[in-house]
Amino acid sequence: MNIKIPKHGGPDGQGLPEEVIDELIEIVKLELFNEDQLKQAIELCISASTQDQWNNNYRLRLVEILKI
To answer: What stretches of 1-68 show up as alpha helix (H) in DSSP?
Structure first.
């Protein structure tokens, strides 16, 4: 998959519970989503996250899992 994980540029979302990103990481590991589904899930997570959550935690975790 050729997925880019963008940085969150704002505005802040309400905050994304860590359980949600853990579930997304599990979906990535199990390859349950196609590329389009994964892009949509990432966009939704970005919009719900605060910039700090996404840029300093969740994004880095996804980049590590996807090895990009």
So the answer is: 18-30, 35-48, 51-53, 59-66
